[in-house]
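Supplementary Methods S3. Complex input for the Palmitoyl-CoA-bound model.
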Amino acid sequence: MSGTSASLQPPADAAKPVRHPDAPAPGELLGAHYGQCFGCGGEQPHGLHLAARAGEGVSITAEFTVRPEHQGAPGLAHGGILATALDETLGSLNWLLRTIAVTGRLETDFVRPVPVGTTLHLEAEVTAVAGRKIYSTATGRVGGPDGPVAVRADALFIEVKVEHFVNHGREEEIQAAMSDPDQLRRARAFEVNP
Ligand SMILES: CCCCCCCCCCCCCCCC(=O)SCCNC(=O)CCNC(=O)[C@H](O)C(C)(C)COP(=O)(O)OP(=O)(O)OC[C@H]1O[C@@H](n2cnc3c(N)ncnc32)[C@H](O)[C@@H]1OP(=O)(O)O
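Predicted complex, serialized as structure tokens:
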């Protein structure tokens, strides 16, 4: 079964997304926005280590290989992990808009089981923007970028100020992120939404 709830339908006056002039070029790897991020961080041993690449327009491609620590049923990826991979890919789109945003709603269809060892080929794009609301959609395919769809999602991200993280995040991680020597990650965290 698939379908999208009313809150994921952009309003009639929604705008087309506009790629930021300083967005990474198509084909360029985005890198992690935070080393400890479970989705993309390289310092997170059990994380997904998802590698996202800028596409044309406001689109992203990404890959994630299911490891044994990502199982739900024996030999199969946990559904929540697959939803995380979709969420992370969708979240990466916001860097192409140069907007900081968090997931408000994520609706996921699980179409096929995904065995351990499989590489999930993800594709996501922003479909519309209405004020602070960013509407986007993603698929994850198996067997190659043109293989059958195993998972798909529609999402609503909401633009936030950096204070969202500073006010709600645990102090020690916020301080560490603020002094991250990686200039690009600092820029993604602090300069996109002054
Ligand atoms: C110092 C270190 C910095 C680090 C910098 C890092 C930067 C890069 C980090 C990115 C990280 C990526 C990782 C992957 C993406 C996550 O996983 S993000 C984590 C998961 N998400 C969250 O934790 C969000 C938790 N929720 C919230 O904080 C609040 O509910 C929100 C989403 C900010 C919204 O609250 P709000 O700002 O008060 O906005 P609100 O007025 O309620 O809603 C605004 C509009 O959105 C609509 N809306 C809000 N929620 C929903 C919903 N669930 N369903 C439908 N509509 C909704 C409202 O109806 C409203 O619509 P309009 O009335 O304007 O038409």
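The mean pLDDT is 93. The pocket of Palmitoyl-CoA is lined by residues 7, 33, 39, 87-88, 91, 100, 102-105, 131-133, 156, 158, 160, 162, 165-166, 174, 177-178, 188-189 (CB under 6 Å).
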